[in-house]
Amino acid sequence: MANNKVPFNNHDLCRPDVSISTLCAYFLPEDDKQLIIIDKSDIQAANFEIKGMTCQGCAAHVEHEVNKLSGILKVTASYEQGNAIVEFDNTKTGILEIEQAINSTGYSVTNKTGK
User: Fold this and answer.
1) Which alpha helices (DSSP H) does the chain contain, by range?
2) Domains in the chain with CATH codes
3) What pLDDT, in 10s, does the model give residues 55-91?
4) Where are the beta strands (DSSP E) in the chain?
């Protein structure tokens, strides 16, 4: 399938005239991802405080980028709380890679804590 996604910058996502179908086409991955967990002790959770998110589109952008990484189990980003909570398999990815993925969206990780 041809990739007809329109490139967005962070402020484009907050525009009221951007349709849900356009956002879905931009954010939803085209490939299914499988994750096999061998040992539950490899599961880790981390909280990333993020500066710059102003709407749900911003939070969705962060979730989409983090979900591209191998080993991600769950990402919940909130522009209201200014954070993302990420559960991941630490044998496949790490806090530094997740931070880099978040920073690649144009928002900034200001603090991070592992759980």
Assistant:
1) 20-27, 56-67, 95-103
2) 42-114 (3.30.70.100)
3) 999 999 999 999 999 999 999 999 999 999 999 999 9
4) 43-51, 72-78, 83-89, 108-114
